[in-house]
Amino acid sequence: MLSTYEKRVVIPDSVTSIGYGTFYGCKSLKSITISNSIISIGRSAFKDCASLTKITFRNITVPFYERYTAITRNIKDIIDMIENKNFSLDVPTTSKYAVVCHFFNENPEDEKILAYIKESFLNVFQFAIDNDNTEFATKVAEQGKFITKKNIEKLIDYARDNKKLEMSVILINYKNEHFGFDDPLNDFSF
Question: Structure pTM?
Answer without folding.
Answer: 0.69
